[in-house]
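Hey, can you fold this one?
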Amino acid sequence: MITGNPGTGKHTSARLVAKRLKAEIVDINRLAIENEAVASKTAKGLEVDMKKLGRLLASILKKKGNFVVVGHLAPYVVKPAGIDMVAVLRRSPARLEATLQERGYIREKVNENVSAEILGISLYDSIKAFGKRKVAEFDTTGKEPEQTAGDIIAAAQKKKPRRAGAVDWLAVISEEEVQRFFDY
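Sure. Predicted structure:
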């Protein structure tokens, strides 16, 4: 499973990992849209029916095969059983801000996602949902997607250790930046 905040490289990495492992991608966002699990659409984005989405995912993951599940909602809708590893992708707040702005996110949504990245919400929620032994954290800042995919595969195959909690953006950003991102 690959998760993390929007803009961290989840889908690009998932495509590369799935190709190399000959696995099927299960895109949580696409699944929600294609199966009418979107409750409403607002200026801030889509509101998803989490229970319906969870049931859809469970029915897919019951099937035999290799899957790479990808999406920022994964810790909230995927059950831990059958998940071998959870890759949480991280990106520096400044780079993440630029990526989200390039995608046309409104300022409030940029700040919300960058604040969540600074605090490590995706990592925390993944550890809470799946346990620390299944979670591996990857900083994608300045890395080519192929390198991130290779690192994910190496951790999944236990060729590299799974580390979680090593990325600490609060230690590297200024107080002014913190204030800017949290002032929304």
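The mean pLDDT is 91. Let me know if you want another pass with a different chain boundary.
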